[in-house]
Each structure stands twice: as C-alpha cells, then as structure tokens.
Amino acid sequence: MDFVIDTMRRADWGGVKAVYRAGLATGLAAFMTDPPGWRDWNAGHLSRGRLVARTADGAICGFSALAPVPDT
Fold it and tell me: What is the CA radius of gyration of the chain?
C-alpha cells in the first residue's frame, strides 16, 4: 500500500475516528470501547504533532497525535 504522511486537518476526523474505532475493536488499544467525539478528542491532544497516513485516493489509513501527560 502506498501512502503519504500529511498534517491532520479537522476534515480528516471521520477517517481518523474510523481507524481509532477499528483499533478499539481489538480490545488491545485502550480501556475505552468507543472513540470520543471530536470536541473531547481535540481537547485531549496537542495541536502540534497530529499526522495522518493518507492513501493515494485520500483515505486515512493511520494517524498519530500527541497528548500531554502530567510531570510526576
């Protein structure tokens, strides 16, 4: 599969959410069972460091995003 790494845009959320949902369905990705809505996801991640893997036809096949963690 050929793809490019691109900056995530707000319009990519549907594709990102689908990839997120597929990962959650494995039961191995996180403690939740459904991805959050855009507002909660956006609030929990830094505005920098959001990337998507985009296929030639524009479909999202992967993503990464940075989230802050407490300094404890």
Answer: 13
